[in-house]
Design goal:
The structure holds 2 protein chains of 2 kinds. Chain A is of the alpha/beta class. Helix content of chain A is 35%, strand content 22%. The chains are: A alpha/beta, B alpha+beta. Strand 23 (449-450) of chain A pairs antiparallel with strand 20 of chain B, so a sheet runs across the interface.
């Protein structure tokens, strides 16, 4: 029998550990990744000619980052590695890839999707101005290119990344104007029992807050973002917000990093026709999977933040677990004991993630207050007012209907950045639970595909 | 339970059913429109959006002209903008098929008698006027009065206009049974609701056969999915809709630019669709063949990216003509379905014509080619 073909999409923590497990089983997987270098987002590697040490780049996670990079480098020659390659569609047990204009169609016996996450964003007035970035984008600028997004950067939103990126900016010598967190500080106390599932990670988090305090960065909790101020010519000039006690304040800055934790990248699971379900704790629609990562569709496995936001450590465990599940399903004996240990590990991370969701809740209620003139869908320049007036005229409340009538989520990101907030806004206007608004149907290509694809030179 | 009766029940809330509902209200008849899913979600909402008369069978042109008159007044009629642009349509043929130039000339001569003016242009003349055309383009036929509109908006706009005039519109109402009991049709939904009317109009697209079969009139309809893509927005510069005339399905390709700037692409091999699941899929190989054909037709578009593909469920009949008109077996029963991937432009004309047939008993529009009886097997 021919050797089973295992394709892993993504070379972050989940993808690397999945590939390693497959190689250890004596098989040669194909690893496809959009990035130029392995590591994913959190352990993103700097360009070849940059020489910053691990400690500087990854802080408390330096050891894990180095271990992951070393593990991937050790797989050289034992895997088929396709960097800078997009999987743009999945059909009939094949993945369809694009690298520049080169198109390939690769068959699989097992497909392990380790597609990671992007920032979860809540639109607000001015978030489309020059100088307004996502937290992830601000981190990429620093990690990959060693540049700050501005000379006075304000961090706003919620979630662990808010503190991590702010402290990384402080450490890199950038001026941080303030950290504005929408979560009330009391939420953290409520979350404590779950957060204690990983005392060392909790400790790291506390250290980040201390480092910000030591650097005399103002940190405010329980705020309500009102507006990113500025002009289309000169970009961001200030942020206006309401304090926990209700006072309106303004802080000058020339850049804003905005984000509310992360959202999973699930388009490939969608194109593979996996079933999804609404997760009330996070308000995400997640592809269904069993405890080892088997999707509802045969031969498809899901791991890492692309399946559910459980963090990088969990991604390493769930990546390996999904690979072991795939190997077992392909008749390659694997250690059952190891799978049991990995499941237990993932369960611990899941408990911690639940704590994070409690400590840094997604401010769904903010969507209702987005002013009419604020842009919701940046790709198609659809404002909150446009969406509200389309709803008034057409009565549309289902996500795909609202998209068809208003163009919201119809642009090049296909609603990945605005879809969640648009659904919350629709739910608020229609006064229905957000899960009744439904989920935008994913369509190929996952990212823009050149019309010149497959063109002969 | 029995719901309130009406003069007419329409099953199928696509463009045909929605526009028929509107025009039936104009004749003063009470209307109940039943739609399995949401208005205009399948063929009516996912097609290319061509408001194109040229290229249609000559016997369809009176219907197409009638539809054009409605498109031209759509904004006033519907009270909303469905992005209708009378910006022209160009149909071209390739060097590899020189015989099609004669066919184009012949069609233009005959179409003129039906009120469709076409201007024939050489490839060079076309390229001078529209520099995006590739070297393979041999000749073209330009229809100034054709154009395009937004299919996502059209059928729902007709349905809302019908509702404002008093039509009862029930979405998410899947019909599982229809039969004639005495003078009335009893139409039953999956959830048990029953609707009653002396007249029944089936405008159920690819699902039409399931209902016509209940009245002893099966038709050999085949569901297929159109192969659609759209580019990122670029400055609005291409006004006419453009399509290729060819006998090969794979070579068939067409595009139009919307005022927002995106270029909508359609054509090449159609994909599978699954009417039972209300889903259809664009196969990746069909996207690639479509992009290859677009590069041939308009090489300049090769510099752009597509950002999304989609499909829907269309019902195709063997002669590419719809079933339209009264039933051959059951009085009070009418059909308008199976438009074979070419129903969007004529849709409002179909609605107006069916309303006329139902309300007045006759129409000047030729209907013989569309009789359902043409599929009856000899007794």
């Amino acid at each position: 029998m021919a050797e089973p073909r295992i394709i892993i999409v993504g070379a972050g923590p989940a993808g690397v550990r999945a590939a390693e497990a497959v190689v250890q089983a004596g098989l040669r997987p194909t690893v496809i990744d959009e990035a130029r270098r392995s590591g994913g987002q959190i352990y993103r590697r700097q360009p070849d000619n940059f020489t910053r040490p691990y400690e500087k780049l990854y802080g408390t996670e330096a050891g894990r980052a180095k271990a992951l990079h070393d593990s991937f480098d050790a797989l050289t020659g034992k895997i088929d590695y396709l960097p800078e390659t997009l999987v743009w569609n999945i059909a009939d047990q094949h993945v369809w890839t694009a690298s520049g204009n080169i198109q390939q169609t690769l068959p699989y016996d097992a497909l392990i999707l380790c597609t990671g996450a992007t920032d979860r964003l809540m639109p607000m007035k001015g978030w489309n101005l020059a100088g307004a970035y996502s937290l992830g984008g601000a981190q990429v600028a620093l990690k990959s290119q060693a540049v700050s997004i501005g000379s006075e950067v304000l961090f706003m939103g919620s979630g662990p990344l808010l503190y991590l990126v702010a402290s990384q900016y402080v450490q890199a010598g950038a001026k941080v104007a303030a950290v504005l967190d929408t979560s009330p500080s009391t939420a953290r106390i409520k979350a404590l029992p779950d957060l204690l599932a990983l005392p060392s990670v909790l400790w790291n988090g506390i250290q980040l807050t201390r480092a910000l305090k030591k650097a005399k960065v103002a940190v405010h909790h329980g705020i309500t973002p009102l507006e990113i101020m500025g002009s289309s010519e000169t970009g961001v000039s200030a942020v206006r917000y309401r304090t926990a006690s209700g006072a309106e304040k303004m802080i000058a800055c020339d850049a804003v990093a905005l984000g509310y934790h992360l959202r999973p990248e699930t388009q490939l699971a969608d194109l593979a026709r996996c079933d999804f379900a609404f997760d009330p704790a996070t308000h995400h629609w997640l592809p269904l999977r069993d405890q080892d990562g088997r999707a509802s569709v045969k031969r498809v496995y899901l791991a890492g933040d692309g399946a559910k936001i459980l963090g990088a450590r969990s991604a390493e465990a769930s990546g390996k677990l999904a690979a072991l599940a795939a190997l077992a399903d392909l008749g390659r004996a694997t250690g059952n004991g190891e799978m049991i240990a990995l499941r237990r590990e993932v369960a611990t991370y899941a408990k911690f993630a639940r704590g994070l969701a409690t400590a840094f809740p997604w401010p769904a209620h903010q969507a209702a207050a987005i002013p009419d003139e604020a842009i919701i869908c940046r790709c198609e320049a659809v404002s909150a007012g446009d969406l509200r007036s389309v709803m008034r005229e057409t009565g549309a409340v289902e996500a795909n209907r609202a998209k068809a009538f208003s163009r919201i989520g119809m642009g090049r990101c296909q609603g990945r950045y605005c879809g969640l907030a648009a659904a919350e806004l629709i739910a608020a206007v229609a006064q229905i639970p957000v899960e009744q608004v439904g989920r935008l149907r994913g369509q190929a290509p996952v990212k823009p595909l050149p019309i010149a694809i497959g063109e002969e030179e | 339970m029995m719901n309130a009766a009406s003069d007419v029940i329409i099953v199928g809330g696509g463009l045909m059913g929605s526009s028929a509902a509107l025009f039936l209200r104009g004749h003063g008849l009470s209307v109940t429109l039943l739609e399995t899913d949401l208005i205009g979600r399948q063929a009516s909402g996912t097609n290319f959006g061509n408001v194109r008369r040229q290229g249609r069978a000559l016997h369809q042109l009176p219907l197409a002209n009638r539809a054009l008159a409605i498109w031209r007044k759509s904004r006033e009629l519907l009270g909303t903008d469905v992005e209708y642009l009378q910006s022209g349509h160009i149909r071209v043929c390739y060097r590899e098929r020189p015989e099609l130039v004669g066919a184009m000339e012949d069609y233009a001569d005959k179409a003129r008698h039906e009120g469709l003016e076409l201007e024939l242009l050489t490839g060079n003349a076309l390229r001078a006027k529209f520099p995006f055309f590739g070297a393979d383009v041999l000749a073209g036929s330009y229809s100034a009065m054709d154009g395009h509109a937004n299919p996502r908006l059209a059928a729902p706009a007709f349905a809302r206009a019908a509702r404002r005039l008093g039509a009862a519109i029930h979405e998410n109402t899947k019909i599982v049974d229809a039969q004639k009991v005495g003078e009335d049709f009893h139409v039953t939904a999956e959830d048990g609701r029953t609707f009653r009317a002396p007249i029944l109009l089936i405008t159920a697209g690819a699902w039409g056969n399931a209902l016509s079969s209940q009245f002893g009139e099966p038709v050999p309809i085949v569901p297929k999915g159109p192969n659609m893509s759209v580019t990122e927005p670029v400055p609005y510069a291409i006004h006419p809709a453009v399509g290729v005339m060819t006998p090969l399905e794979e070579e068939t390709v067409y595009f139009r630019q919307v005022a927002r700037g995106n270029i909508v692409l359609g054509g090449s091999t159609r994909g599978p669709s699954y009417p039972d699941q209300y889903r259809s899929y664009v196969l990746p190989q069909n996207t690639l063949s479509q992009l290859k054909q677009i590069r041939r037709l308009a090489p300049a578009l090769g510099k752009l990216n597509i950002i999304r593909v989609w499909s829907g469920i269309e019902g195709y009949l063997p002669d590419s003509q719809p079933v339209m008109g009264p039933s051959g077996t059951t009085s009070g029963l009418y059909y308008a379905f199976g438009f074979s991937g070419a129903g969007f432009q004529i849709g409002p004309g179909v609605g107006e014509t069916m309303a006329e047939v139902i309300a007045k008993g006759s129409t000047d529009i030729p209907m013989e080619p569309y009789q359902i009886g043409r599929f009856a097997t000899a007794p």
